[in-house]
Amino acid sequence: MQPSLEKLRKFFRLEHENGYADSAVIGGLARVLDFWEGEARNDGLPEEIVQAVAATLRGYAEQTPEGRAEALKSLWKQIQEKVPEAAAASKSSAPRPRRPAPEARPSQPKTEEGEQAPGPKAAPPPRPGRAESAPGGVTSQRPIALNASLTVLSGIGPRHAQTLAKLGLHTLGDMLYYFPRRYDDYSQLKPIHRLWYGEEVTVIGTVQMATSRPVRGGASSITEAIINDGTASLRLTWFNQPWIANNIKVGDAISVSGKVDQYLGRLVMNSPDWESIETDNLHTNRIVPIYPLTANIGQKWLRKTIHQVVTYWAPKLTDHLPAETRDAASLLDLGTALVQVHYPDSQESLAQARHRLAFDEIFFLQMGVLRQKRDWQSAVGRIFDVPDEWLNERVAQLPFPLTNAQKRAVDDIVVDLGSGRPMNRLLQGDVGSGKTVVAALAAMMIIRSNAQVALMAPTSILAEQHYRNLKELMTGEAGLSESAIRLLIGDTPETGKEEIRTGLANGEIKVVIGTHALIEDPVTFANLQLVVVDEQHRFGVEQRAALRLKGTNPHLLVMTATPIPRSLALTVYGDLELSVMDEMPAGRQEIETHVLARRERERAYTLIRSQVEAGRQAFIIYPLIEESERSDMLAATAEHIRLKEEVFPGLKIGLLHGRLRPDEKEDVMRKFREKEYHILVSTTVVEVGVDIPNATVMLIEGANHFGLAQLHQLRGRVGRGSDKSFCLLIPDNEDAVENERLSAMAETNDGFILAERDLEQRGPGEFLGTRQSGYASTLRMASLTDVKLIEKARLQAQALFGRDPNLEAPENALLAEALKRFWDGGKGDVS
What we know:
- The protein is an alpha/beta fold.
- Among the domains are: 3-89; 188-285, CATH 2.40.50.140; 434-560, 3-Layer(aba) Sandwich (Rossmann fold), CATH 3.40.50.300; 592-748, 3-Layer(aba) Sandwich (Rossmann fold).
- It is 38% helix and 16% strand.
- The strands form five sheets. A seven-stranded parallel β-sheet has the order 13-14-12-15-16-11-17, with helices on both faces. Strands 18-23-22-19-21-20 form a six-stranded parallel β-sheet, with helices on both faces.
- α2 packs antiparallel against α3, α3 runs antiparallel to α4 (65-82) and α14 runs parallel beside α15 (435-447).
């Protein structure tokens, strides 16, 4: 992890230990920024993370201890999502509260896998204690013993418990929900004479021989055994496990499971699992769960420990789903599902168990989203009347006609603004579909009644572009003076910032466009009534909430150029009303897309030269800023030099990446926009919103490292004018499967089709961003690609929500408690 993040994590931990008293640093936590911002940029942290840290810490002192705790936890989760090293280093910026250390236990013997073994007489799990208190004073039926530390189990002392904590296992309840990552099906026994090379099976036989001998001068050992089942014999081999020869005796009947291998023409098994057939066949002769592990935790030991907890406690659970919901959805009861997901009796029972537990997760998600939507709709919003005659005049003044999709979106907004409830609408449109024009018309509706509008963009480049476009659309004949629309970004001079703050506070400025600078405390509004958030998945929940709090229940319009797959629209974005812009303005051409091999790179360079000679411009995108010893991916800085000196010596080439200062980025983009550069070499910093109508070629190196949605965003940087445009994808390997994925880009320009494929292939991460902070990691069993399950859970959630939206009925008390646990890891957009 980068040194700057390691320091930040240390300060956050110290602040946690001090009870969030703002005492981790002399003078307050905000003093960290005096040195941290520069160090973070030197470490190459994304600019949005640097800005998020700065915004959070500057307002830290004014918050309550509870607010500070929530702010730091949310910030660290945002960092984890953007910086993989941070996610690997820690699951949270603040550690769990320390549990009181149990009494010292006598040391336990070690197993052959190098871990503490349960004692000779394993102590039974603790008996059910007093019940937990549920919301509304109702007694919970969830045994409080499930909150007990794992040290109550025989063979687990404090040190071992610390190791298990690395797996997220702290309590008995955690073990119930620590699901296997896969299963090995050894349930179909085969006679030895019918075994085939390469198959994974279970066989039962009688031990005929078992010996252990040293090899390599005694540095290692090999244990060998031969078993016979009456049809044939099978040789078993274990490396460096000499104790096995003492544990299996000639004449013992054992069950062994593993992969059939071959040595000198004979079938063998290397390092198989084995056990006496008098045992309960926990590890063999069944469908065997395989759990995620960490250092010093063995599969066999963990399986046995979880089995002890699951078989005792799962049947004792009272199901949190009401019987009516369970019956309507044809689901297993919770206890049975937990037992079967860990130790399934058959593939069919495993499928039913996984279905039940996945249903729970989507159901909880839907209930939370419905609650957010209700809370938002219960608020009172200012009514804005939009006469048809006035709107038609504004539309007629636009330099181009609206598409039907744009007209539908505008009509949706008119209805929202006149409803008396705050608008909460997601405007999703493919690259170039004209969302900015819709946002401009929405802003005009607000300004007409002398109220204010704020538009927040994730980068200063995008904010400046919105500023230019909105100023062109809203000033002059549209009626707004240029002084009433302003740009506020981190790079704005302090005198300009002060002038803008004054204008917003006294109401003279009607529209402000900016980055995170908008949510800093000194910025106040006289009458903020519309908040527009562009590329909303780039912002955290708290950042959007902070901007909304600048007004009183303002209307909210969030925009994204990343098409949202149907399953996500039904779940993660279910609290938002949706306007889909699936139609392109007239004049937009399809971009011709090709996947090239590395050896064909010169063809791409030839195309770029010909386009530049015709007066056009080109982008060349790289996945890295600088070369890395751990990767052979091409990097922008080194390739910029090579291209300038060797490939395009007569052309002017600019360089853009995230480590440049904001003013440097603006300068590079200005020169490219004004055609001072023929080619712009860049990282994905240009992914969103950059508008260069003269650019006609997008060459993406290392294209296999990007998702389809991201590639589609990059492709959308060209083809914004009337000239034929091209997108060239060059993967850095010849992987057939990967290149087949990229070929989807050549097959379609439809972002919605690509979004569905991306969700199936790469999961929801690219679409979620920092929305519902921390929630994605809560889905352990459900897949956000399973539309059928999502619709089923949504139907049942809507039915229950209609009957008892606050879960106040006695039969729903346990569900209210489970729902709270699920959502404690994150929160939605309503604040």
